[in-house]
Amino acid sequence: MDEFARIQYWTSERQSAHWQHSRGTVLGIGDDAAVLDFNSAQDGIVGERRQLLVSDTMVEQVHFTEQTMRDEHIGYKALAANVSDIAAMGGVPLHAVVSVCVPATWGPERMKSIYDGLYACAEQYGVAIVGGDTTSSPAHLVISVSLTGAVEAGKEIMRSGARPGDVVFVTGPVGLSAGGLHVLQGASANKRHAEKVSDPDCRALVAAHQQPAPSILAGRLLLRSGICHSLNDVSDGLASEAWEIAEASGLRIVLEERLMPKSGSMSAYASSVGSDPLEWMLYGGEDYVLVGTMDRSGVTALKAEFHRHGLPFYVIGKTEEGSPGVEWIPLPHGWNGRNSGVDEMALLRTSLPKRGFNHFGT
């Protein structure tokens, strides 16, 4: 197949013209440029809106290997990473363009599986795929997705809005994706370890890594609450995202180990392989839950609203005036939930290192 035949094979009859029009698409795949009408998009936004634009790239051997991702999961995750960025602003995803650099080792059928995953994610989150680019690659597959979104004008939630006295929250447990990656890498390296993949706990971790769930509904609930002051998605690790909020907002964030939600599946697997689940929770990344800060007075009502929608919500710390940074209060030795008060624990603060996934870090 030539380039145009392949594009037709991968994208034709995936999304109806009627559905694309409902997302504000005037002209999609098939011309030199897509034509979009954001004002006609049925996105639930009333009144004046602003456009959001995000982009993310996945590279073979950097973000995935044949041992860690099936082809359809690569496509799914490439779009999901962008959807998560829209969620972190409180927005609604709308239109995606997808560019792929394809080596000879990836034939049309494998690439069709990539697009199967892309369109599965698009269907789940209401994204119209409206174009892109295709080129050859000398060695590895590269897939780059750019995504538009919309948000109520002036209500977008940024990293820079945290205030001293806020509580810090997450919209789900963290560390599962890193645990899933550990499972998959271990299974690839050790046949005895491969047996663990079939365990229910491990299957949950693997699913979290291969098909993460961006937090669009959580982001919308936070925006509508009017009391969420800052927000970030956990893509590079909780510690890294907390540092980004602290630096952007010019304050100190204090996280408490006793408040951190810890997945039972992750804890059980970590214990079985002698790993520290906190390392995955703080520095693993790719969980795509949201971390942010909000007015303390609204926690009870917002938590109830989250639970009404079947979503988790956890307070994990607070913000303070001070030099930008992130501090950590670990569990004191022998702490069992009853014999150590907050005042005592405050004496045990340590600085949380600013690290996480960084392409150019040392």
What does this structure look like?
This protein has 362 residues and is α+β, with helices and mostly antiparallel strands. It is built from 13 helices and 13 strands. It folds into two domains: 3-152, 60s Ribosomal Protein L30, Chain: A (2-Layer Sandwich), CATH 3.30.1330; 159-351, PurM-like C-terminal domain (Phosphoribosyl-aminoimidazole Synthetase, Chain A, domain 2). α3 (71-87) packs parallel to α4, α3 (71-87) packs parallel to α8 and α5 (176-189) crosses α11. The chain starts with a helix and ends in an 11-residue tail after the last strand.
Short note summarizing the structure:
This protein has 362 residues and is an alpha+beta fold.
C-alpha-based Rg, rounded: 21 Å
Give the biggest beta sheet.
7 strands, mixed
- What is the CATH architecture term of the largest domain? Alpha-Beta Complex
Question: What helical percentage do the residues reach?
Answer: 25-40%
Residues in β-strands, percent: 15-25%
Oligomerization: single chain
Tell me the domain tally.
2
In CATH, what is the class of the largest domain? Alpha Beta
In the predicted model, the low-confidence regions spanning at least 5 consecutive residues are none
Category by helix and strand content: alpha+beta
Provide the CATH superfamily of the largest domain. PurM-like C-terminal domain
Mean pLDDT: 91
